[in-house]
Amino acid sequence: MKAPKSLLIASALLALLAAACGGRAPGNGKPLSHRDSIRIVHKAHRDSVRALRRMPEAYRDSLKAAREEAARLEALRKRLVDTLEYRALMDSLANGDTSGRWPAKAPYPYRGAILPYHRVVAYYGNLYSKQMGVLGEYPPDTLWMKLRREMAAWQAADPSTPVMPAIHYIVTTAQGWPGRDSLWRLRMPRKQIDSALAIAAMGDAIVFLDIQVGLSNVQAEVPVIEEYLKLPHVHLAIDPEFMMHNGKRPGSVIGSMDATQINWCAKYLQRIVQENKLPPKMLVIHRFTSAMVKNSSAIQPLPEVQIIMDMDGWGAPKLKRSTYNWCIYREPVQFTGFKLFYKNDLKQEPHRMMTPAEVLELKPKPIYIQYQ
Predict the structure, then answer these.
(1) pLDDT, averaged across the chain
(2) Concatenated DSSP letters for 136-166?
(3) How many domains does the chain fold into?
């Protein structure tokens, strides 16, 4: 019976090696016995057979990995919005901007995203206070009559973008006194949050829960409302104006928030979306000075989280346009918002609010509108 070809090759190689080493095993100086030669040859043969047997298995593993990656990419493609439609809408929001800033560079969102398919028109405030916004000024029926009137005006100004109503409720308010824990903020009781959600339900509106951290931080305050953020129609807003540093009292200076805190909030929302299989969330950041949001270029929108930089400064139309251009237009993140004040915008000449048509002349067009 003929010896296997691999055994003959191994024997020949071993003979050559032994000849080169003068009949001694390489490395240890001892003579290479016939038994050792046979043992080494057989071991080499077994190793070569095992290697040959493993090759098909490795090939199968590589094919399996390639198929799994292709399936993952296909599933991801199905989860994403129609990219051509999305890009067209984002180009429209850029409103003819030629600077290259807009539309902002950000990942495509997953299906179910609200923006840019709708323009959100929100009423802002706190149910305990008539001074903090329109939410606390009127009973729910009157509130909805006014909000529907504003929605109709926006729909008429831009018929191509459906209007979606929102209730923007300040769930944690910065305070003028330190409180028991010396953090200068007050968390709203559950019954008040539930009341805000009930008002939203009257008009089939989405909800934003707004946090003013005072001397606390987003890592401590956002988890308090997680049970509400798990609801598909509830979104998050944070207010850098009231994130205080070095023990400063809220309202004594304008606060600030770094991109790290904003990204933490986005990641937090991302986890909620993933774990609960929800449509993408929105995250609103209020801003009316450049210093309020630090390192904005490091803010990272996610497929699960759409980020809105909301210009919430008040004043005459000329001042509001200037503020928008300075701290929103120059530093693109993803989407933009614009706040209109029923009272404060009237304090300066020409003593009127900007109209929807005027706001839509801005570059980019705000897709989130808030009334206070």
Answers:
(1) 90
(2) GTS-HHHHHHHHHHHHHHHHHH-TTS-EEEE
(3) 2
